[in-house]
Give the backbone structure.
Amino acid sequence: MPELPEVQTIVNDLQEIVGDQFTDFFSDFPKAVKSSSQEKFRGKIVGKKIESVNRLGKIILINLSSKESIAIHLKMTGKLILVESRKSKAKSAGEKHLHHIFYLKKHGALEFHDVRKFATISLLDEKDVDLIKKDYGIDPIATLFSKKDLDAILEKRKNKSIKLVLMDNSVILGIGNIYASEILSDAGILPTKTAGSLNSEEVSELHTSIKKILKKAIRLRGTSVSDYRDSRGLKGSFQNELKVYKKHGQKCKTCDTIIEKVIIGQRSTFFCPKCQS
DNA sequence: TATATTGTTACACC
DNA sequence: TGGTGTAACAATAT
């Protein structure tokens, strides 16, 4: 599932289309396009130049010359694949999960595949983007994200479990169910502990692990545990580095203790009861 | 056919 | 008001 490292990988790859221009847009599932109408959305992007591509948490922003931004949230199973050319204008049989196509002047097309159809596309102006930023916390891979910031976050959410705090976009961005478990495994902290119960040493460990795990995952181009693929349709390789996620019932690689699974906030959570305390 | 899957949001409650 | 907890929701594969 695309979390911060996967979204960052896609954003990095999409730098290739900066300067290109949209020539057309197709959708067979307009419900995902959060605009007044598909035709209106199409009209607003066709002919527009791509000025930059960046990321706001897990949202991919394709910023246009019109100062509007196409905001894409991949949710569970969304994939953006850059193809050099397409045989048919619209989708053909056998492309069951291809739902939207952005046609480009120089780069062929950007295909949007989505098995679960939870992903969304919207068009935002600068005001809308600012509004989202207001509700969003700090980006954990930004250099300015300090241990002090983490201290403040943990104090603000001191009664919540540390795992839920890591996944809370209003304080810290982009960490989903996979990386929350992996970060806590790396830091040696039990996911069930409350944020306020961490001592200074644990907060330091956690701060280090957040940056370390997310950056390592970006370096390895993300985690392809099921659907995730990068913009060339290739798998990442962080799935080979997973220590606890979906490893319940298996032995911990460090101490041979059986990895356990608990539900926190209605989400599966994985940990080693010996390595994490 | 019932269930699991995830990020986000809506909403009740204190 | 804002923090918190929970359910609901999107749609599909298995």
In short: Chain A is about 25% helix and 20% strand.
